Amino acid sequence: MVRLSEIIFSIFIFLLSFQVQAKNPPPGTGTSDIPANILIMLDNSGSMSAKLYNSVEVYYPLDVATDSSGNVYVMEYYNNRIKVFNSSGSYLRSFGSYGSQCSQWQYARQFTIYNDVVYIADTYGRKIKSLTLTGQCKDIGTSGVSYPHAIAVNSNYVFVGGPQNSISVLDHRLNQRTTQSISSSYLSYAWGMSVNQAGNKLAIADYNYNRIVEFSINGDRFTYTQKTSGSYSSSNGYFQRPTDTGYDSNGNIYATDLYGHRVQKFNSSLVYQSKIGSYST
Fold this sequence. Notes:
By secondary structure, this protein is mainly beta. It contains no helices and 22 strands. The chain has strands spanning about 10, 30, 60-65, 70-75, 80-85, 90-95, 110-115, 115-120, 125-130, 135-140, 150-155, 155-160, 165-170, 175-180, 190-195, 200-205, 210-220, 220-225, 240-245, 255, 260-265, 270-275. The strands form 6 sheets. The chain has a 4-stranded antiparallel sheet, with no helix packed on it. It has a 4-stranded antiparallel sheet with strand order 7-8-9-10, with no helix packed on it. A hairpin with a 5-residue loop joins strand 19 (about 240-245) and strand 20 (about 255). The two termini are about 25 Å apart.
């Protein structure tokens, strides 16, 4: 997901309890960027919870990204595919299916688009894959992280996180560079992540610790910078299972709060600013 200026959030309602080893539908959310100040909410709690295959419908939307033309890519969890719409919402195409081939995946949680290349964290395939904007295979690699969930890309590297306190780094051809263990005081479960516009900051939604943690990026290494409070709470600035992050062009960080049914905004010092959203269809 290109997260360089404005943010698109997709929010998904948790229907079944999640176990990382099971293929149950996970809590999820996505962030992305198009050249306008637009907030997009993808919600399957209402009419979209039915299994619809019409080209303009999406079934269990889990993540969203945009390309350089502003086309919107929506990942359908159960269908293991991505549907593409133009910036007006008209359906363009679909690609992907269940499997182990490069252009297939197995219940992926998150993907991103960087320089018009699609990068997918194939969670149960335990691979990282890159595709063209039409779904053609480019590269496939091992993430170095068991059950990869979170993925972000800057000008040099691909960053991958999952249900452990480590971040894996790959080059753009998906050759693994390094896996850095992070102190358990800072990171437990990277469910979603993003890089800032300069490509030197990494914001991670820590699902277990109920907080946002930020690291500085220096080449393929990380240094802890700051974090939000970690209590499970509905109070402003706290989280009830955060699932993704996104930066705007000023370095503010936006994060989705799964059970809080909201998006929260923090400034570049991770001080709470505002929120939007509540539980409703």
